[in-house]
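Sorry, explain these tokens?

___
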Amino acid sequence: MSVEPHGGKLVQRVVVGEEQQRLLKEAKAFPILSADEDTLLDLENIAVGAFSPLEGFMTREEVERVAAEMLLPGGEVFSLPVLFQQHEPPRVAPGEVAAVQDEQGQIVGILEVQDVYRLDLPALARQVYGTDSAVHPGVDLLYQKGPYAVGGTVQLLRFPTHPYRRWVMTPAQTRGLFAQRGWQTVVAFQTRNPPHRAHEYLQRLGLEIADGLFIHPILGRKKEDDFDSETILRAYQLLVARFYPQDRVVLAGLATAMRYAGPREAVFHAIVRQNFGATHFIVGRDHAGVGNFYDPYAAHRIFDILPAPLAITIIKVGAVFHCAVCGGIASERTCPEIHAMRRASVSMRTIRDLLRAGKTPPPELIRPELVGVLQKGLEGSANEVIP
């Protein structure tokens, strides 16, 4: 591939074979750290290299550098803390090896403890999210997970149980697939929603400028009013199967939680997609934003002020909408301002509200073929992913 993983190498902390069996036996005698689903998914993403160059959960020094400077101690850009939080003081100490178990008591990995510390959660929230208000879903989740943290390198012994396991690919797998297809340039598209017409506009833009398109929806925790992962996957599978050149598109899921951290999360998403082998990354208006917490174009500007450049190329796209005069989907760069009164916003919130009111969204907002999938998702009656 023409782009290296962030930091120069793809981290690999997955243990298999005889070594795996040996560590699983030994881990039964280790002190226990219980992890929720979000933390287990982060453990997996660290171990497979999705969060390269991280080799473990962050220590206090790493958290402080990332929060204040968007840098790891080694000098690599990193924009979000990756934390192993606890509600109570952990019963582990630096120098110990702890077993990480899931909520069912199964050992999933081990953590070589380097640091145990207490977080100043409001101060961290202000640095990372720009607010300490619990109204912000990312800040609220940070508070809910507790003020204590454990830092240290990890090894993954078992992949966490996940309902969308077959949709998750590792960075090594996607890089291998891109190389197999002969793609030298790959545009990655991040999403937490099913596709509407504006998303499709951006994805087709990616297909115009690169050898391949990598659609990589979030499959982890999202806001309660977001569509569930099953609906997102069903909608995208239908879109790709019927309307895209399938040999030029890869659809896979990223099993991690949304942080809703706006500009900082845009940088994080770009780093992750670079690790998966993408050479380009689309950043649209209000990327990873929520409510009115962020300026709509803060996620564009942040890439201009990073302490060091990223290897992945950022494609910055402004507002995309339907223009009745232009006769289709257009953007601020393609539609003249004199048509501003004839523009219709294309947003998943609008589509969701129409569906909940029993109305059919117009085709200029979303393809009619996808409406049934979304309606079933809202009703909680989505079936298995379309074969």
